[in-house]
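Table S2 (text version). Query chain:
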Amino acid sequence: MRKALFLDRDGVLDDLALHEDTSGWEAPRHAGEVHLRPGVREALQQAADDGWLIFVVSNQPDAAKGKVTQADLDAVHERLLQLLDGAPIKEFFYCFHRAEDRCECRKPGTQSVLTAATKYNVDLAQSWFVGDVDADIECGLRAGTHTALLEYEHSSDKRGNQRADLVCRDLGHVVRILTARKSDDGSETED
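Corresponding structure-token output:
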């Protein structure tokens, strides 16, 4: 079985965007609002080189909420792929539903994580969920992964009720900690 990193998208891979209609920091709604967080490509490559499968698990309800079209969300995803420039992400799992739809693919629901684990033979007990909000941490805990919370400044109002195994500055920080946990013979060291 393989180990995996399950990553939230906005606030982990890319920056949130300030939207005037809500006066809040939220997921990018248009391709021009997509900006990678510093060091993301390098962190993804380092993780892949260390044997991690990488998945993105993200709630993207803005089309269902009538804020944008599905074509806008598709353009955001395409722009992210351009900026990632071939980064080793195995698969993206997006939930386009609203919270009130009560689906299992919307975090903190675990459907996407469990689907990836089955499809790619992932050992969830050796895997990590990395996110910047409580729903990410809860999803990882419910799925049986370790969890890492990123202290992204624009999502601080959406965290504080879940306790993560690690609290880090950014994705690069998480990857450096995980890769440093290997002993000289290549086996994982204890937490």
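Notes on Table S2: Residues 70-84 form the longest helix (15 residues). The two ends are 20 Å apart (CA to CA).
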